[in-house]
Amino acid sequence: MAGAVSYRDVFRVPEFRAMCLAELQSVAGDQLARVALSVLVFADTGSAALTGLTYALTFVPSLLGGLFLTGLADRFPRRDLILWIDGLRGCLILLVAIPAMPFWSLCVLVGIVSLLQPVFKSAQLALLPDVLGEERFSTGMAIRSITIQSAQMAGFAGGGLLIAVFNPYVVLVLDALTFFGSAILIRLRLQHRPAANPVAAGADRRTGRSSASETWSLLFADRGMRALVLMLWLMALVAVYEGMAAPYAALFGGSSVTVGIILAADPLGSVIGAFLFSKFVPEDRRPGLLGPLSIAAAAPVALCLLQPNVVISVLLFVIAGGFGTIVVMQTTTSMTLRLPDARRGQAIGMSNSGLTTATGVSPLLAGILSDKTNAATAIGWFGLAGTAAAVLLAVAWHRAERTTPIPTT
User: Fewer Cβ atoms within 10 A, N terminus or C terminus of the chain?
Assistant: First the structure.
């Protein structure tokens, strides 16, 4: 039953506290940077498509990183990877913060940061069951979701205010500092653990391509796992409103503060949704709710076709974000517990790189559509298509669950 393992029980684990605090810093910094880049590019170009492109570059290169680099999370000590990637990303963001940086250079630097993200995330998620054990893992994932979304909410809302007071370059420097702070915390508080699959680091001579192919097959090994992966990715497509925040605010005459409020709507709903779901829904019932929850996450976005004002739009995004995060949290939990530890890092990294790539592609495509219509119409069409896809996946998941039930903790 929900509550069998309390939040207090999980926070008693010192390493988990350190991981939460480190992630809180770096995620908040990431969102500050996304607000800064969106405002900076839209102010310079006036193009929703280029704004969507810049936002996409904070996500899309993750596909390559997920396919070819996440195996590192199994081949090398995961704590060491987390530490060094945080430090490297901090250095790259400092370069992005240089004023008058050419647009193409900015794109390359942001793309490299995105390329490294799936390696970091796969190492982190694969390490979490080792830190908590299976009995605490589900509750730990809920806490992690709340932590991430709280940091995103603070970063998005704070980013709008900071840009209004200072400028985007100052915000980017703050982002770099959060990466360095996270790296220091991981270095001091997490214990060293050996690689989960050290053979792959030396004696195993298979190419990265063949390893990725085998892991990809593992993710799509049965109908249940396929449904989980596709529902996870769908949640990124319907969250298109995040990457379109600047054009959406401009449609209603809003400022950078309005951009921050729109961006903060999704994480606000996510915090509420993750808390209520983890506290009041029994663990054995959670997988069965994934289909209806996926539909509930997409449907509010479709209502943007009605051209609602900013207040109603923010409310819709709060609802969509709440249901969407529950789906992401539960699908990730179920997949992680089914995966063997020797492949867990790469498999999680590849599934999350698909999620990240979809998060970046959707605003790029919506930006192109928005330049021909407007931001609200473009977002609404994505919501409508997402609702239709969610209905199909809900049916597929219901059939799969009856024959291959997903284990709970």
Answer: N
